[in-house]
Design a protein that fits this description.
The structure holds 2 protein chains of 2 kinds. Chain A is mainly α. Helix content of chain A is about 70%, strand content about 0%. Chain A has 2 domains: about 1-120, Four Helix Bundle (Hemerythrin (Met), subunit A) (Up-down Bundle); about 125-160. Chain A is built from 8 helices and no strands. Chain B has a two-stranded antiparallel ribbon. Chain B is mostly helical. Classes of the chains: A mainly alpha, B mainly alpha.
């Protein structure tokens, strides 16, 4: 299991580096998906199969699909690649690298001081996760659900869209507007007056 | 050592059987459709037209395997691989009969859901990498459709998980000794069936590739065996959903007299036939109708089913 852990960890780090350096956003997202999958394997080797499954279903399978979806809608082309190339100048890296180096030193310091925990000693199944979520951590679950409900209502409000002046309220609903207009909304061929043969 | 060999043999046998069933389905589907539409279907190549599959495969292999110059080459090549990989990976956790399983994980069902959620990428990336407006529209539709239907696909199965008390396939089948889950979880079954059709992008939910509006949707630019991968991947998906329905709702291998694996295959083929009948019977909905249907009807129903099942399971205990 130890070798699987290290391989998956190395893949995750490499994929994340590739995410940062890719010029094409979709390629970057693909590497990010690989990174998340590698993290799922890390979870699995550490004895948390349930977390691994959730990582794949929620992060890799749902959230990242939305990211890809949005990037597809933006229709980014060569211009975007040029912009990315301009942004990824060597000078850009100095600040983040110094900050990251401080963190790495801290991690090494902590890792050498305390002995590492045993790996995959106990397997945490779905049942234990559920019991601790709805037991000691119930308040956290409730707070998260408040937040999500607020986000849901907010997103609904933003997405509703107010009708423009002179536009019927159901203007974006094809069924109703079609009934109201009494004809097909889109017609093929040359434009003819309504009712003409 | 002996165990390892048995493992490898099981993997190869499952792979062989699944791929052959999927390829055979091309013939089965065309013959059954023909039967229901009062015509013959492919009946020239070999006995009953059975060798049609071989002819089609040879044709696909010898077609020019072309990558359009404007496409994003590596993503374009990767996309059809993802569909085959994710669908075939799902078969690893299915228990076909006692002892006939590749890996009976205790998170089996979650693994299947995870793989099906990764399967979206093949269609989305295939559509994007083609750099063709029809393919892009198909990819967008696929992303929206599969993401929304995935949500209650998972939720509709949670009733079964609650009643069995486990995510493991074999435990779920064993929990159905007294009664098939289709009886207490009828709503869950119907929801899963609809979500399954949408996830495999089969008719009537083949909106991502609706040929009357989008040429061929996300795989407009694909040819040769890359197209074949999408094509066979869809059939493997049908086999997978049929196998899942028979395991989760119809008692898997349980049944009198006949050996377990035979019962499993009978149930699975029944649902494959049902999938094909759907294609012959139903028209394709409009895209906004599909999304409305998913979020406004199916999702609340799945949540209600989960809530009621949970309450009853809690009350009975």
């Amino acid at each position: 299991m130890a070798i699987l852990f290290y391989v998956a960890g190395a893949v995750a780090i490499f994929a994340t580096l590739m995410v940062l350096t890719r010029l094409n956003p979709v390629h970057g997202l693909l590497y990010l998906i690989v990174s998340l999958l590698a993290v799922a394997i890390v979870f699995f080797t550490l004895g948390a199969p349930f977390m691994a499954a959730l990582e794949v279903i929620i992060y890799a399978g749902a959230i990242m699909v939305l990211f890809v979806f949005v990037v597809m809608l933006l229709n980014l082309g060569k211009r975007q690649v040029e912009q990315e190339r301009a942004w990824l100048k060597p000078g850009m890296w100095v600040g983040p690298v110094i900050l990251a180096a401080i963190l790495i030193v801290e991690v090494i310091f902590l890792a050498t001081r305390t002995g590492g925990a045993a790996m995959g000693a106990v397997e945490i199944g779905p049942k234990q996760v559920g019991i601790s979520l709805f037991g000691p951590y119930l308040i956290g679950v409730e707070l998260a659900s408040f937040l999500l409900l607020a986000a849901l209502v907010g997103a609904y409000h933003l997405g509703m869209g107010k009708p423009q002046k002179g536009e019927k309220e159901y203007g974006n609903r094809t069924d109703e507007s079609r009934t109201a207009a009494g004809r097909d909304l889109v017609r093929a061929g040359a434009d003819r007056p309504v009712g003409a043969p | 050592m002996r165990e390892t060999i048995i493992h490898i043999v099981t993997v190869l046998v499952v792979l062989f059987v699944v791929l052959n069933i999927a390829a055979g389905l091309i013939w089965v589907e065309r013959r059954l459709l023909a039967l229901w539409q009062d015509r013959y279907g492919p009946n020239r190549v070999g006995p009953f037209g059975l060798l049609q599959v071989a002819a089609d495969t040879i044709k696909l292999f010898f077609k020019e395997d072309w990558v359009p110059p404007f496409a994003d080459k590596w993503v374009f090549i990767l996309a059809p691989g993802i569909v085959m990989l994710t669908v075939l990976m799902s078969f690893t956790v299915l228990t076909f009969a006692p002892g006939i399983a590749i890996a009976d994980l205790n998170i089996g069902l979650l693994f299947v859901l995870a793989m099906s959620s990764l399967g979206v990428y093949s269609v989305v990336l295939g559509g994007w990498a083609s750099d063709n407006k029809y393919a892009l529209l198909g990819g967008l539709r696929a992303a929206a459709q599969m993401l929304s239907y995935e949500v209650f696909m998972g939720l509709s199965l949670m009733g079964v998980v609650l009643m069995a008390g486990s995510f493991s396939m074999s435990a779920i089948v064993e929990a159905q000794r007294k009664m098939w889950f289709v009886v207490p979880q009828f709503l869950g079954f119907v929801l899963f069936l609809i979500a399954g059709v949408a996830e495999t992008r089969r008719l009537p939910f083949d909106i991502p590739e609706a040929e009357s509006e989008l040429v061929a949707g996300f795989h407009s630019e694909y040819s040769g065996m890359k197209f074949g991968m999408f094509f066979v991947g869809e059939y493997v998906g049908v086999v997978l959903i049929s196998a899942l329905i028979s395991i989760l709702f119809f008692g898997g291998w349980l049944g009198p007299v006949l050996p377990p694996i035979v019962w499993f295959l009978i149930k699975m083929f029944f649902f494959i036939g049902f999938f094909i009948l759907l294609r012959a019977a139903l028209p394709r909905p409009r895209f906004d109708q599909l999304m409305d249907w998913g979020w406004k009807l199916m999702l609340p129903l799945a949540l209600a089913n989960l809530l009621v099942t949970g309450a009853i399971v809690l009350a009975v205990r």
